[in-house]
Amino acid sequence: MRIVTAWAVLALAACGGGRDVDRLLGARCDNNSDCEELCLGPNNDFPEGLCSYQCDIDSDCPSDAWCIDTNGGVCLYDCVDDIDCDFLGREWVCRDRDRRGGGGKERVCVGR
User: Fold this and answer.
1) CB neighbour burial string for 5-29, b if at least 16 within 10 angstroms, e if fewer
2) Beta carbons of 35 and 24 less than 8 angstroms apart
3) Of 79, 77, 82, 78, which Cα lies nearest the Cα of 112?
4) DSSP at 54
5) Residue 48 region, left (φ>0) first, then alpha (ψ -120 to 50), else beta?
6) Distance between CA 100 and CA 36 in Å, rounded?
7) pLDDT tens digits for range 34-92
8) How far, in Å, CA of 11 to CA of 28, rounded?
9) What confidence tens digit (pLDDT) does each residue in 86-109 have?
10) How far apart, in whole angstroms, are the C-alpha atoms of residue 60 and residue 13?
11) Residue in 44, 52, 49 with CA at minimum distance from that of residue 71
12) DSSP 8-state symbol, 102
């Protein structure tokens, strides 16, 4: 039983299941008062809304997020493929978006 449990925990962590989601970054929202700073959406890019905050450079964001050139620069979770975004809900996928400050593109979690 312990082996099965250990594998389940590892699989969940590999899928992004271990990420911190709170009112600063990642929580669902309908308006800014639901978040520490701002609510993105709800709309096609941010289904069911997403709490985030303003940034100018990547180091303004947590280690598992990029500063993306959306809404004047906001932190969005990084990803490699769609499964990495499952912790946010089934409407979320992994897509390329422009980094703030002209730093190229990075893959982040956004709506389908």
Assistant:
1) eeeeeeeeeeebeebeeeeebbbbb
2) yes
3) 82
4) B
5) left
6) 21
7) 999 999 999 999 999 999 999 999 999 999 999 999 999 999 999 999 999 999 999 99
8) 24
9) 999 999 999 999 999 887 999 999
10) 24
11) 52
12) S
Contact 108, 76 (CB under 8 A): yes
Nearest CA-CA partner of 27 in 11, 9, 14, 42: 42
What six digits make up the tokens of 2? Answer: 């312990």
Q: Where are the domains of the chain?
A: 2-111
Q: Rounded to 10 degrees, what is the CA torsion of 88, 89, 93, 97?
A: -40
Q: Is 8 helix (H, G, I), strand (E, B) or coil?
A: helix
